[in-house]
Structures are given as structure tokens and as C-alpha cells.
């Protein structure tokens, strides 16, 4: 009897990698109002009024603070939307993204 050929099957890697997460960070300044920061935290990041006030206070006292953590594209979109609104309202608010890894 002859040898039996053995076939190996390559199984593709079907593991889906979770997207990288990014922090949306507000930087404190002397011109952007507390109320504006709170309103953007509730509007764009869906924080409750109490949570938004706590985050805004933290930003004011510490120089910066995290508004939220999202996949890159969503974090970037939120940063752009907040920055556009800030400029439209005459505020110099700076929003930056930072990897959460």
C-alpha cells in the first residue's frame, strides 16, 4: 500500500481586533466659560449635568481633563465639533486627542 497524503488546511485568523481608543481632552484657558464647557460636555458627550459640572471643575482646577474615550474616528469627530462650536461662540477652547493605551 502507498502512503496516504495528508492535507493541511490553513484557517484564516478571524480574530477581530478592538479599535484603539482615544481620550478627548479639554485644555483649560482663561476665556472659555464654565457654562460653555458644561454645555458641550452634555451635548457632545452625553454627560449628566452633575457629571459635566464635575468634569468642568476638574479641568479648571487641573489644567485639563478627559471629556470621553472613544474609537479614534469618533473621538476626532467630537473634537472637531466642539472646536467648531467654540470658535463660532468666540472661545479659544483647545481639544486634543491622546491614545488611551
Strand and helix map with partners:
Layout: E1 21-27, H1 34-45, H2 49-62, E2 64-71, H3 72-88, E3 94-99
Helix pairs in contact: 1-2, 1-3
Key words describing this protein structure:
101 residues; alpha+beta; three-stranded antiparallel beta sheet; 3 helices; Ribosomal Protein L30, Chain: A; single chain; rod-shaped; 21% strand
Instruction: Outline the low-pLDDT stretches.
Output: none
Give the DSSP E fraction (strand runs of 2 or more residues): 15-25%
CATH class division: Alpha Beta
Annotation, overall tally of beta strands = 3
* Spatial gap, N to C terminus: 59 Å
Separate helix tally: 3
Tally of discrete structural domains: 1
Could you say what the CATH topology is called?
Answer: Ribosomal Protein L30, Chain: A
Largest sheet: 3 strands, antiparallel
CATH superfamily: Ribosomal protein L7/L12, C-terminal domain/Adaptor protein ClpS
Mean pLDDT: 92
Helix content: 40-55%
The coarse overall form would be rod-shaped
Rg, Å, rounded: 22 Å
Q: Structural class of the helices, strands and pairings? A: alpha+beta
Secondary-structure element order, N to C = EHHEHE
Amino acid at each position: 500500500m502507498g502512503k496516504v497524503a495528508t492535507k493541511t488546511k490553513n484557517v484564516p485568523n478571524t480574530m477581530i481586533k478592538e479599535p484603539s481608543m482615544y481620550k478627548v481632552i479639554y485644555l483649560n484657558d482663561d476665556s472659555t466659560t464654565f457654562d460653555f464647557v458644561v454645555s458641550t460636555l452634555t451635548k457632545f458627550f452625553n454627560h449628566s449635568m452633575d457629571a459635566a459640572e464635575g468634569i468642568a471643575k476638574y479641568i479648571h482646577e487641573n489644567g485639563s481633563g478627559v471629556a470621553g474615550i472613544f474609537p479614534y474616528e469618533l473621538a476626532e469627530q467630537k473634537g472637531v465639533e466642539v472646536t467648531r462650536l467654540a470658535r463660532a461662540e468666540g472661545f479659544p477652547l483647545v481639544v486634543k486627542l491622546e491614545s488611551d493605551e
